[in-house]
Amino acid sequence: MEIGKILKDVPAPLQSKCVAIETASNYSACLVSQTEDTLDRKSLLCLTIGVGRLHDPPDCLGLAELLAGMVAMQTDSTIGLTGSVRVADDRTEFSYKITSSDNVSKVLKQLIKSITTPEFSANRIKHLIKKEKYKQQLSSLNWLQRCSGNSSHPYNRMVQPSRRTVELFQIEELCDRLAEFHKRHFNSNCRRRMALEDGRSTDELVSLTAATKFDFSTPTDSRVRSKDQHPLEGSYTALGGTKIRGKRMNLGGIFIVFPLPDQTDLHKQSPDLLVKYLFGRDGLGSLKEYLRTNLGVQLDSASLTDTGCIDFDTFCIALHCDETTKYTVETEDLIISAVFRYLAMIRSQAQHFEQLHNEVRLDRRAHFLPEVDDWSSFLKLKRLPLVNDEFNIATRLHRYEIADVLSARHLLSSYSAEEMNGFLACLTVDQCRVFVSDLDWHTEHVCLFSSPDGRLCCQPDGIAPYNLEKLSENLLALCRAEWPTASCQLDTVFTLPRPRPFVCKDFSLKPRDSTNQPNGPRKIKRQSTLDGSSSSTNLWFRQDDRFQTELAYISVDLLPPVDVVRLALASSLQISILANLFSEELADLKMQAVEADLELSVSRSCSGIQVCCSGHSEPLPALLLAALGRIAELRVPLNYFNQERIGNLRAQKFSLQPCSDLSQIANRLDLAGFLHIQRDYQSLDTQTLDREVEINPSSFIAHHFSNPAHATPLERENWPSRPELYAEILALGNLTAEQVISLVDSITAVLPPLSRRPADTFRLDPFFMRCSERLLPRGSHHFIRLNFATNRSIELTSRTTRLKKGDAALTKSVCGLLLQMPTAISGGLKKQASKYDDFFFRRFWHKCCLWLLKEALTLCTKLPDCTKRDLRWDTMIGCNANCIVIELVSESHPVAIETTIELVIACVGKTVDSITKEQLAGMKSRVQQLATRLFTAPNLNRQHELYWRHITCGDYDFSWDTNSLDTNVKAILDRISKKDLYNYWKKWLKQGSQDRRVLSVHKINRQQFTFNAQDDYYATYQVQGIEVRSLDDFKQNLQDCIPMQTASLKDTFNS
C-alpha cells in the first residue's frame, strides 16, 4: 500500500507512542506502539468501515449485519482466532486481540482479504441465519428513544416493525443481494479506518502497514445525513418536558435525555465534560449525596451517549433506585426537580466555569502526560486501554480526524464561555425527555431490542408501546426558576465543589533557548549580586532541551550557616526534627498539590532542609512560595526539642542496615567521599562515643528558618544570633531564565533575610564545606568499637529481616571496613589524562577502577557461599576522595570477621591478577552499562535527581552530563589494563600498602561476647594504628582535602 502522509508525534497515552498515516484511497490508520513491557501484553487490531444498519435497503433489512458476520467467520476460520464484530448505525467494527505480535500481519492481511473479497458461501449464510448470529441486541432505552422520536428520521427507521428482513429470502437471492450490497458499499463507497496497538516501534508498524495490500478503490462520503435534525425532534409524540413511559418494560432506571447538535467539532472544548464533572462529584453539597441520602437513588452517569458520527448527539443523566426505595411517580418528580435545581445552580456560577474547566482539563490530560517514568508511578495510573467504557477506539476512529483519534476530548484547549453557554442552553426542562418504566425498577426482567426485525423481546401489542405524560406545571415552574429560589429548600443544599488552588492553566511549552546549553545546569548571576557583594543564594537553571515536556522541577535547599551546621550532633538533631515538623505542617498543602497533579515534598538534605516541587510549570511558583511562606511563619520554641522527640528520632533513624553506623561515623568525621550521605543523627551504642545531646540557646538553630517579620519582639530578643539562611535553588524543565530569576526574588521576600556579606568573609557556599572534607592518615588503620543492642535488628543478607528476641540471629556481630582513596592520578596515566578533561578523567578513572574491582568480586571462586551472601561491598563516589565500604555479618567476633574481609580483599587481588582478556572485556562491558544507567537521564525526573544530588552535596562538577558520556567512559575503560587494575588494588586495597587508609568499625554482640572476651580478642589484634575513643579529637588530627576544582593537574600528580 502506498502511504501518502505520515503524521508523527501524534499525542499518545501513557506508555505509548503514536503515528498516523493517510492514503489517497480514504484509508487512514492510527498506529500505537506500547513502550512498556508487560506479561499480559497483547496486540489489538481494530478496523472500521463506514457502513452500518442505516445503509440497509428498505426491502432487505439485516444485510449489513449479515455481511459483517460472514467477513468475521471467514477471517476467524482462516487465522484460528475469534474476534469481535459489531454493526452500528453508521459503521461496522472488527476487533482482534492477538497474543503474539508475529501474527498481526497475518490477521490484518486476512481481514482485509475477507472484507474486499468475501466468499458468499451458502453454508455460512444458513449458519448465520439459523443461529441468529447476525442479530444485534440493544437496550430497551435505545429502542424506546427511537420509537418515540421522529419516524421520518433515518436513525429511527430500524425500530419500525418490518417483515422484509434477510430471513425471508432464498439463499441464492440472498447471495446476489449480499454481492450487490458489498460492491456498492463495502468495496467502493465507504470510509475505512484502522487502529493497531503493538509492542513494536512505530517505524516497524508503519512498515508493516505499508507492506499490506489494500484493494480499495477511492470512495465517496457514505455517511448518512440527518438534515440537521435530531431524531428526538420534529414529532408531536416527543415534546419537551415530557415523560415517556414504556409499557410493560423495565428500563432499569430513570433517564433524563437532552437532544444536542453534533459535538464532534467541539472535542477541544467538550463543554459536556464540565457538566459531567460536576454531576460526578460526591460529598457534601453534591447531587449524588442528596439523592443517595434523601431519596435512596444512585446517580449512575451524566454524559454524552455514544451514537457514532451521524450529525447529532444526546446528553443523558441516568439514575436508579436502591432496593429499599419505593418506586412511585412522586419519586420520579422529586428526582427530576433535584436534577434541574442542580443544573440551575451550575448556570448561576458562570464566574467559576474557567476554574472548573481547568480542573477538568487537568484530569483529562492525566493519561497523556509527556513522560511515562516521571508521572505514571506518582499518579499510579495504568496504561489507557484503547477499548473500554470510557474510551472506545472504534467510535473514535469513525468520528474524529485520524490525528485526533486518541487525544480528542482529553487534550482540551482553554475555556470558551460561548461554547459553555451554548451547551447549557440545551439542558433545559423544556427540551428534555424523561424515559421511565411502568414496571418496578427492581423487576428482574430487563428488556432487549433485537435488530433487524425492529421488535423488543417483550414488545406489547398495539400501536403505541409507550405513554406520554406531560410534566406538571408546578414541576415545570420549579425546574425553570432562577437560582436561588427562596421557596425551594433544595437551593440551600447544593454547592459547587471546593476549588483546587494550584490547578494549571497554561500547558504550553515555554520558548526554548536558541543556543546550546552547557553540561549540567548553569549558575545564574542575578542583578542584585553584581554589585561586588555575594548573596547567600546559588541559583541553578537548565531549560529542558532534551525531552521537550511541559513539566518542571523547582527545588530549594535551606541551609543554616556553616558554623552552625558544623556543631554536628546538636545541629543535625534539630534539622532532622525540624524537617519532620515542616513536613507535618505542610500536609494539607501536599494534598492540594496532589489534587492538581503536582508533587510537594519536605525532607532532610545533606546539611539542611530541602523543599521540592514538580509538575506543570505554571502553578509551581505559587505552590513553592506557599510552602516556604508556611515554613517562615512557624515559630518553634526551644523546648520543642525535648527528650521525648529526641528519643523518637533515635528510634526512627535507627537503620536496619549495619553500615549505617559506619556511614554516620564517616559523616561526623567529615571524611571525603561521604559528603553526599545525609547527616542524620545516629545513636551509637558505645562506651566512648555515645553521649546525651542537650539543646541550649547557644546551639538553637530553628530561628534561622523563621522570618523575623512573623516573630514577637520577645522572641527576637531571645534568639541567640541574627537569623541567616543560605539557599541552593535548582530550576529545571519547562521554564525560562526570566521566570526563574523572578521566582528567586519572590523567595527572597518570603524567607528570612538571606545574608549578603562581602565575598572575602563569605563562608556559606558548599564549596567551603568541601574545604573541610578530611582524609584518613596515609598508611593508617584505625578502629572503633561499638556495642550491639540485642533488642534491635540488623540486616543479615540482601533481604532486610526484623529480628525478635530469642531469634538465633541475635548471636551475630558486624564488622565494616572503610578504605579511602583520594581522587588523584599518577604514574603512567598522566599522558592519558591530557587527552581528556582533567576533572572528568580523574573522577571517572577512579569510578571505573572501583566498579571493575566490584565486578572482580563476583568472579572470586574460593569464597564460601555464606560469605558471598552476607558480604556487602559498596563504593562511595565522592568529589575529593572515593571510598569502598566492605561489611560482613557473622556469628564470629568482629576481629575474626575483619580477618575474613581481608581474605576477601586478597582474593579480589588474586582474581584481578589472573583474569583473562575475555573476562576483563565482560567486566568492562558491565561497568559501561552501569555508568550509562547511573549518569544518563532517560527522562526529566532522573535528570533532576542527578543534578540535585550533586548540588546538595556541593559537588558542582557536571562534566558527565554530555551526549558523549558513553564514548568517553569507553575510552577510559579501554585504557585500563589488567596491570593498571591490579596496581590500583595493590596501592589502595592491599593489606600492608603504605598508601592504604582504613577505618574499621566493630559492632559487637553483647549477648555472646562479654567485656572480658572482647579484651582477649583485642589483645591479639595486630593493627598499624590506634583505637578511636573520641571522634572529635580524632577529627582534629585528620588532613584537610584540597577541593579538586582549585588544584592544578601538576599539583594533583605530585600529591
Automatic annotation (TrEMBL):
Keyword RNA-binding carried by entry: no
Keyword presence, Oxidoreductase: no
Gene3D superfamilies, A to Z: Metalloenzyme, LuxS/M16 peptidase-like (3.30.830.10)
Source species of the chain: Macrostomum lignano
Region (Disordered): 507-535
Single GO MF annotation: metal ion binding
Domain Peptidase M16 middle/third: 392-642
InterPro entries (UniProt xref): Metalloenz_LuxS/M16, Peptidase_M16, Peptidase_M16_M
Entry keywords, A to Z: Metal-binding
Protein name, per record: Peptidase M16 middle/third domain-containing protein
